[in-house]
């Protein structure tokens, strides 16, 4: 379930970015329609004049593409650096090209310089010039500043590769590649490696909006470049690699003999460009380090694969359901807090399950800290642990023993079962359920610990303990939900359960099932997403067979019968019957 939820949140994050896209589009549209604003830099405060595109519609253009190791390119006479030259492209033309969509392609395999194999950088330099002009400023008469559009980008991508030194704790052997071990010893546990992707698209945005300098909304302002003299803006050149999956990048090393590159040129509409620009914009978590908020490669690919391969109707349903998932998650959290905050009686509730939940949350937190999961996930798990610890104060009496201090300095924490739990039959049933459960869990736990020790590599004994506990809880943790089912069976009642919170959580598990079949994942993860559904259906079955009884205590610690009246005198049979049958309709609903 944890793995399924991480993928759900990855897809949900990408979907929420879509909402940001439309907001940016609305803001930019408002700016384009709005009047020009006064420029405080001018003495008279004259209004800014809307600019125009330096390349009018249907302008004939020549495309020059150079590939060089220099970030600032000037070697225009080097024919080896010229990767692609295409004459007489039409700006804003959507009908020409190989497939009649205005797109052109060029493929070439480039030799790899030795410096690139040693983590060097390779740059692509794009020049669009009006037909008849050249991008070289040294060619007088052939170069014109307002007739030349230039854009540069690094072709390779640097990615961090982490090497975890793991081994079999019994034999000391490892299945890791010996070459990787040598590199880890020489470069350290984290290595920065240059990666390559063979595809890149050059988009020229078909846009003639009267942009106003200083009023272009972010992140669009990063791409609209104004000429300092004329005040007009250059055509927008956009390097589009959004659909390049992270899994298709491969490292550049000594084994590669050449670098293939398929370069495509396509026109791009303003609206689609705004979509891509918003998707590539930096996350709002800009006050945190990059590792804190960025999605993993798997999360990024899962969103793109879902967009590419999912049926449009199913994808639309997934977007709607993702928003509903967030709402249900918030409502489940709110009702869980309300339930335990207002709870007066613990009759019918498994206190041991609450205590075990604290242990489970603690194991998950220690595990993700040991495996260096990103900061946002760590915070969310830590908050969940704090909530579980708060629940302990609601199900047990927690006091400080200042007389018997720990080490003679620190007061001891004393935990004592509440009277409503001890004096009812719930404690007996809870102890009985965990006794029966231990007969199943302990053998499974022992077998899983031995398997993990024999066949799984670990960083050390501490990591083995955490990974073994985490893996066991991930595989068999749903079994700990069964003690509450046993208590319900013994008491023949489910009126004490927080049904609102359970309903919201159950609806979220059904949504997780939908994501499990939309997103590609191993079958074991899909099975894990279905296990909680089985337990909830058993809860529903118990609610159906255990009919409403006004004598039973409901989830707020009250019942339909007023036990405070006539405690000294026994009521007449008719009066007792009336007290039960004349129960207000609102209290029946609470049951």
Automatic annotation (TrEMBL):
This is CLPTM1 regulator of GABA type A receptor forward trafficking. It is found in: Membrane. The chain crosses the membrane at residues 12-31, 313-333, 349-369, 375-392, 436-455, 461-482. It comes from the Eukaryota. One of its GO terms (cellular component) is membrane. Residues 569-579 have a biased composition (Low complexity). The gene is CLPTM1. It is a multi-pass membrane protein.
């Amino acid at each position: 379930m944890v793995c399924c939820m991480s993928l759900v949140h990855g897809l949900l994050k990408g979907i929420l970015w879509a909402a940001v896209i439309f907001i940016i589009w609305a803001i930019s549209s408002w700016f384009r329609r709005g009047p020009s604003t006064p420029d405080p830099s001018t003495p008279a405060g004259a209004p800014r004049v809307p600019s125009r595109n330096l390349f009018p519609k249907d302008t004939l253009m020549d495309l020059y593409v150079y590939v060089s190791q220099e970030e600032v390119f000037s070697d225009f006479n080097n024919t080896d650096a010229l990767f692609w030259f295409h004459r007489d492209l039409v700006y804003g033309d959507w009908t020409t090209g190989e497939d009649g969509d205005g797109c052109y392609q060029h493929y070439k395999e480039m030799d790899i310089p030795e410096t690139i194999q040693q983590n060097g950088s390779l740059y692509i330099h794009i020049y669009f010039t009006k037909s008849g002009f050249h991008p070289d400023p040294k060619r007088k008469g052939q170069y014109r500043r307002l007739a030349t559009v230039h854009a540069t980008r690094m072709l390779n991508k640097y990615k961090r590769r982490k090497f975890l030194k793991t081994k079999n704790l019994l034999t000391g052997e490892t299945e890791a590649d010996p070459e990787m071990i040598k590199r880890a010893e020489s470069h350290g546990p984290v290595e920065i490696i240059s990666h390559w992707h063979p595809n890149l698209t050059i988009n020229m945005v078909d846009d003639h909006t009267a942009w106003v300098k200083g009023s272009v909304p972010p992140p669009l302002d990063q791409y609209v470049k104004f000429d300092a003299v004329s005040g007009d803006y250059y055509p927008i050149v956009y390097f589009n690699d959004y659909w390049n999956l992270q899994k298709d990048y491969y490292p550049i090393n000594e084994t590669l003999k050449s670098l293939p590159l398929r370069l495509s040129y396509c026109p791009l509409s303003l609206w689609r460009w705004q979509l891509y620009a918003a998707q590539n914009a930096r996350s709002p978590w800009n006050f945190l380090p990059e590792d804190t908020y960025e999605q993993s490669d798997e999360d990024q690919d899962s969103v793109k694969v879902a967009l590419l391969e999912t049926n449009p109707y199913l994808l639309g349903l997934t977007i709607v359901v993702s928003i509903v998932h967030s709402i249900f998650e918030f409502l489940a959290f709110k009702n869980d807090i309300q339930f335990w905050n207002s709870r007066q009686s613990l009759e019918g509730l498994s206190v041991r399950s609450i205590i075990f939940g604290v242990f489970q949350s603690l194991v998950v937190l220690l595990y993700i800290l040991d495996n260096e999961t990103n900061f946002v996930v760590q915070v969310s798990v830590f908050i969940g642990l704090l909530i579980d610890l708060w629940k302990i104060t609601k199900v047990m009496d927690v006091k400080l023993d200042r007389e018997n201090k720990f080490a003679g300095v620190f007061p001891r924490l004393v935990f004592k079962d509440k009277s409503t739990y001890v004096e009812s039959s719930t404690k007996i049933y809870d102890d009985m359920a965990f006794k029966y459960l231990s007969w199943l869990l302990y053998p499974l736990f022992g077998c899983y610990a031995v398997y993990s020790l024999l066949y799984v590599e670990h960083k050390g004994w501490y990591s083995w303990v955490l990974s073994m506990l985490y893996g066991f809880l991930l595989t068999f943790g749903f079994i700990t939900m069964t003690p509450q089912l046993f208590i319900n069976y013994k008491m023949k009642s489910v009126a004490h359960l927080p049904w609102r919170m359970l309903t919201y959580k159950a609806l979220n598990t059904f949504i997780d099932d939908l994501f499990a079949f939309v997103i590609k994942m191993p079958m074991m993860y899909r099975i894990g997403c279905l296990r909680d559904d089985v337990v909830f259906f058993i809860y529903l079955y118990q609610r159906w067979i255990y009919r409403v009884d006004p004598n039973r205590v409901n989830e707020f610690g009250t019942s339909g019968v007023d036990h405070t009246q006539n405690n000294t005198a026994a009521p007449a049979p008719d009066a007792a019957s009336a007290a039960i049958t004349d129960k207000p309709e609102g209290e029946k609903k609470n049951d």
